[in-house]
Specification:
This protein has a domain of 216 residues: Na+/H+ antiporter like fold. Helix content is 83%, strand content 0%. It is built from 17 helices and no strands. The longest helix has 31 residues. The radius of gyration is 19 Å and the shape is globular. The two termini are 19 Å apart.
Length: 345
């Protein structure tokens, strides 16, 4: 553990913008590209990925405080605006992007861009960056929790509505969502009162398990796609264009969410929570859901825009949060807010 801490310290301050998990995630993609699983191993990875998804959502349910999310509903205008950006405006933007790029990009990448826009808010990063920027951390925690609770149901419904025929979503997919996502999550929620504090004390090892599950899903999905000849159907220059589209969507959403929040007379702290909560998308939710909703090789391509966007939001939002912090005086309960952000992360 000390070696890990020393290694993490090597990135600071010059490389403080570089998230270690993103590095490991990219290395996992590289490993999948260079050493894709053989046919026999793909079946084993499929079973392991199924178990990993269930474990991941059980941990999410265990760590997510429903009481905290429900208690935050008193500032309903803020939560409604963030949910509106996440599950209404952003998917509409995705439909426009899909219509405008379908003549150039492959169907798989277009589906990935559209799928990205349907995901819930990223809990950890939205809360962390709101805290750094001295925004309303308590509201960010509640909004991200509510978004992820809604995302378990809303994201598959949006996929069924706009990508149903392409993804092949059917009754079997719906059953897998219930068994691999909803049931483990609800079980975690039921145990939250008894084991919630235990989960907080074990946040580091649980986080390793959670992220390990993500990496397993990424390797299985992308490795299967590579083994099935994804590079023959996916020109490299299209990846560059898809990355550019992700960057444009991130910049637009960051600007729009903050502008609209201020126009609706939210104070700066609330507007900051709305900006990060309404513009960020959850990799932790997106990868498992894609593995269930899209057939093997297709899932490996669909997840690429999600990974691109996640890496970009980490770098861009970190810069924005630090600059906002320099321009804003600390709030009286900054220490308590920071501690709350650490718990949520």
């Amino acid at each position: 553990m000390n070696a890990v801490r020393r290694a993490a310290g090597w990135f600071h301050p010059r490389f403080s913008w570089l998230d270690p998990f993103v590095v490991v995630l990219l290395l996992t993609l590289l490993a999948a590209a260079l050493l894709p699983p053989h046919a026999a191993a793909q079946g084993v990875l499929s079973v392991a990925g199924t178990a990993a998804i269930a474990v991941q959502f059980f941990i999410s349910g265990l760590r997510l405080s429903t009481a905290e999310a429900v208690g935050g509903l008193r500032v309903w205008r803020l939560h409604l605006l963030i949910a509106g950006f996440s599950f209404a405006f952003f998917p509409l933007l995705g439909l426009g992007v899909a219509a405008g790029s379908s003549w150039y990009l492959t169907q798989e990448l277009v589906a990935g861009l559209l799928f990205l826009t349907m995901l819930p808010t990223a809990v950890q990063t939205a809360v962390t960056f709101t805290t750094i920027a001295r925004g309303n951390t308590a509201a960010a925690v509640c909004a991200a929790s509510i978004s992820n609770l809604l995302g378990i149901v809303v994201t598959p419904l949006l996929v069924a509505l706009f990508l149903g025929s392409f993804s092949g979503m059917n009754a079997g997919s719906a059953l897998r969502i219930v068994l691999q996502i909803v049931v483990p999550f609800l079980l975690g929620q039921l145990l939250n009162r008894r084991l919630g504090r235990w989960a907080e004390r074990r946040s580091a090892p649980l986080k390793l398990v959670d992220r390990g599950a993500i990496l397993l899903v990424v390797y299985a999905a992308f490795g299967t796609a590579v083994a099935n000849g994804v590079w023959d159907r996916l020109p490299r220059h299209q990846l560059v264009v898809a990355a550019g589209i992700c960057a444009l969507m991130l910049g637009l959403m960051l600007a729009l969410t903050f502008f609209v929040a201020r126009k609706m007379r939210f104070d700066r702290a609330d507007a900051t929570a709305i900006m990060f909560g309404g513009s960020e998308k959850s990799l932790a939710a997106g990868l498992p859901i894609s593995a269930i909703l899209f057939p093997g090789p297709l899932a490996g391509v669909v997840i690429l825009p999600v990974i691109m966007y996640h890496a970009m939001q980490l770098v861009v939002c970190a810069v924005i949060a630090r600059r906002m912090a320099k321009r804003t005086a600390p709030v009286p309960d900054a220490a308590a807010a920071l501690e709350l952000g650490k718990v949520a992360a």
